[in-house]
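Please check both lines for our workbook:

___
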Amino acid sequence: MKEFFGFGGYQRTPEGYLSWQHLLFVSSFMVLMVTLAYIVGRRHRGLGERERNRVLAISAILIDTLEVLRIIIVSVRSEDAMKWLYLLPLFLCSIQLITIPLAAFSRGRVKEAALDFVFIFGILGAVLGTYGAGNDYSCFPILSYDIIHTTLTHTVSGFCSLYIFFSGMISMKRRNIPITVGIVSLFCIVSYAVNLAVDYNYMFLMRGDGTPYDILYNICGGSPVLYPVSVVLLFFLYIAVFYLVYYLICGRARAQHPTEQV
């Protein structure tokens, strides 16, 4: 158990980023994530809002509990009393710690916007936080607390994203786009300020750290101005493309099945 939780440091050599162990492990979680989201989502599609919300409520409690446990465990095993400064929920995927509970427990436009945000960014976080997490899989062995935690939390976000789609809870109204952009912008501003204060890399606004962001970092030549601006613009571009593709698909579906609800 001491080795599993990393107390005293892991003694095993990490299998490595994009090793067959890494790909097999995360692919197993991704298959389970998609399968559960489809089965549970389709089963709840015809039910009332209360029944559909229950799945999101359980997911919200689970993902927030996992994150609190992580902060406690990593802080306890660290000799640095200020370790918590580097465990703040200020990554793109961490926004789901707030938006999933909002999607489950709020009402009205706030609920609509939260559902859309989870739908848009949940699946992206699931992919980037598993297949793209070179910063984790190159540092920790696969069967370790750190890897299992990060894989679980990211696939819970991905599950919620797909569940919202399959259960028919999405709205994707144009009026919610400014809210989505505003949430991302706020987190970027706060993350960048914290990065400057504690010399860290929240939201990967300072460097790539072995993730796909390294590609953008190299294109920008490591510029401390151009790189973070490009990362933020990339988030906005993703939102725009996601909405565009969604509306194109829905428009085509309505044209083919004009009497059915899409």
In short: The longest helix spans residues 226-256. The chain has a mean pLDDT of 92. DSSP finds ten helices and no strands in the chain.
